[in-house]
Amino acid sequence: MSEHLTTVASVAVDTRHFIGGERVAATETFTDVSPIDGSSLGEIARGTGTDAGAAVAAARAAFPGWAATPPAERARLLEAVAEGVEKRLEELAVVETHDNGALLRSHRRGVMPRVAHNFRFFADRLLKLGHEDFATRGHTQHVSWDPAGPCVLITPWNAPLLLATWKAAPALAAGNTVILKPSEWSPLTASLLADIATAAGLPPGVLNVVQGYGPEVGAALVAHPDVRRVSFTGSVPTAKRIAASAAAHLTPVSLELGGKSPLLVFADADLDLAVDLALEQYDNAGQVCLAATRVLVERPVAGEFTRRLAGRAARLRQGDPRDPATDLGPLIHPRQLEKVDGFVRRALAAGARTVVGGHPSADHPGGDDPGDGRDAAREGGLYYPPTLLTDVAQDSEIVQEEVFGPVLTLQTFTTEDEAVHLANDTRFGLAATVATGDHERARRVTARLVAGTVWVNCFYVRDLRAPFGGSRHSGIGREGGDWSFDFYCDLKTTVTAP
Ligand code: NAD
């Protein structure tokens, strides 16, 4: 086997960059480690500024040809990519689980089918884009969506291929060329995507994949003057660096960032449903940007709700994400475990009370038996138990900052005004969930919430036609549906005299 191939659960993955249709080796590499058991998954190319320059040059060279390819042909090729994803769905699911520790059953059933759908949806949507004509004093006005040029797409580790294709599919459909830089903590499926795109017949240079560290190759890509768009999903501190760097060349940026979303539970809600919704927030071990980690409960039902949620959370099974019986896998990285643990320890020191979970070590200050979660954590590895904290102050760190782990806080409220105030009182605005049996209340409350997406009596139902993004520090811009094309295109109005 080539020194540039690694094998993950029998799937061969090329560890090099993919630039201009060729595999490109790097002089230096970094080790990709599985969060499941700390085993090495391979030595991955560690990109440099030179690699970034080569990838942008390849994307630039391929751009005129791809932009001039008729939309129907671009759509056909992206359909072929979708088929390629479907053909290799099991391999993609298995590799992604080894790489980022999220549940294999979720990758199989939900995530990878959605990856294929991303390509299919935007290929189809492109053909339906309204190329509007209207007349002014006899002059015809024609609006067109022109592709912008090379687009840099930078993605995080919590949903690697899902987020990469959510950006790449519309960017490519619109006629742009792409340089994808996946997270160094989950680099593998991006490499498989390059293989799939090649097999589907995507011309060289249209999709490029560059591996490596964000502050090295990622920063070099963003700073490159020939890049026409930067779409970034990740943390707020990185977003600030990217926005500042892109500003030097006035490169438009789309920023999809973190959150601290609320789940509002009113006394008139179906409590079983409300508990289900709260429990869903532990999915992917809480490493979900949209997670409603601040549970706000109307006082009369707070006791009953807390008892039910605590009972269910304590029974969640934590362990190997390949096991179909597992509810929560590991955190991504020792640094993430340390970060989550630090947040909880500081919250407890500040007076928070553990209802469930907390640090699994013997000296943790108490709480109910977390059951299977604690057992799994004791086995070692990166397992942090599902945790529920109460007695938290609104201005405390645990309520205001994104933990990105399986940690929920629970606060109570007495009036609708207070609920809305608490819900909106952070610097984020990504999402919110409302549980209520009163439609009129749902309408009133959602109108006042600051959030890119509000779910009423449901969670995580997403349609690609809808805009997606966050307000305040949760991001700038919206992608999804035609909003993706608005971002990845230069809109042009052509006025023709009679
Ligand atoms: P991160 O900001 O550390 O890294 C994200 C990506 O940016 C990685 O590919 C990294 O290599 C790259 N990067 C780092 N520094 C860079 C630099 N200076 N220049 C260019 N690129 C750089 O984020 P993360 O820890 O990987 O992801 C977790 C964060 O992502 C959380 O805050 C989460 O809420 C957020 N997130 C948001 C959404 C959304 O749609 N809003 C979705 C998923 C995750």
From TrEMBL:
SUPFAM superfamilies: ALDH-like (SSF53720). The active site is at E256. Residues 361-378 have a biased composition (Basic and acidic residues). Gene3D superfamilies: Aldehyde Dehydrogenase, Chain A, domain 1 (3.40.605.10), Aldehyde Dehydrogenase, Chain A, domain 2 (3.40.309.10). The keyword rRNA-binding does not apply. Residues 27-493 form the Aldehyde dehydrogenase domain. Keywords: Oxidoreductase. Residues 354-380 are annotated as: Disordered. GO terms for molecular function: oxidoreductase activity, acting on the aldehyde or oxo group of donors, NAD or NADP as acceptor. Transmembrane segments: none annotated. InterPro entries: Ald_DH/histidinol_DH, Ald_DH_C, Ald_DH_CS_CYS, Ald_DH_CS_GLU, Ald_DH_N, Aldehyde_DH_dom. Belongs to the aldehyde dehydrogenase family. This is Betaine-aldehyde dehydrogenase.
